[in-house]
Amino acid sequence: QLQLQESGPGLVKPSETLSLTCTVSDGSISSNNYYWGWIRQPPGKGLEWIGSFYYSGSTYYNPSLKSRVTISADTSKNQFSLKLSSVTAADTAVYYCARDRLRFCSTTACYPENWFDPWGQGILVTVSS
Amino acid sequence: QSVLTQPPSASGAPGQRVTISCSGSSSNIGSNFVYWYQQLPGTAPKLLIYTNNQRPSGVPDRFSGSKSGTSASLAISGLRSEDEADYYCAAWDDSLSGVLFGGGTKLIVL
Hints:
By secondary structure, chain A is mainly β. Helix content of chain A is 0%, strand content 51%.
C-alpha cells in the first residue's frame, strides 16, 4: 500500500530556507488522479495546510505562506519537496506530507480536493540559532 | 485564526454519543465537501470522514458525518476510550483557493 516518508534537517537557522523531501513508495506521484500536499502542525497547535502539487505542475499554496513557499517534484525519484524561505521560530512545527485527490480539471486548471490520505509520519523541524 | 470554527474540547462517558461541530461560510463548507481527520496522541492525522459523510474502509460505523448549509458535524456513538483524540474538520475555500482546517477539538472520554 502507498506510503509516504518525510526527510530533511531537523534544525534550521532563522532567516534560512527549510527544505524537506517526501518519498512516495508503492505509488506514482505522476498519477493523473492525485495531488500531493504538505501540512504542518506547530507544537501543541492545530493543522495548517501549506500547499498541494499536481504532477503537471499545477500548484496551490496557502495565501499566508505563498510568498515563501515552493513545492516541486522529482518524478525520477518519485519524490516531492517543500522549500520554505526566510524561516522564523513561528515555522517550528511537525511537517507532514500526504496524498490528496484531484477534484476536477477545467479547460484551464486542475483543482485538489483536500482528501488527505494517507499521511507520512511527520518530521519535526525546529527553527533556532 | 481558523475560518472553520470548532469547539476546543468535547467529552463524554464510555457508551455515550458525542457530536463535534464545524462552522464555516458559503465559500467553504457551504459550497464544498467537508472532511474529518482523527489524530491520536503522538501520531499523524488519519482520514476519518470524506465527502461530508463517507467512511473510509476500516473506520467503524460509530463515526458519522453530516453537513447542513455552512456547518458540519461529526458524531461518535458508543464512545470508547480509544476514541480519545483530536478531531479536525477541513474544507476547500473558494475565496482563498486553498484548504482550511478547523482549529481542532480535543475529545475526552471520561
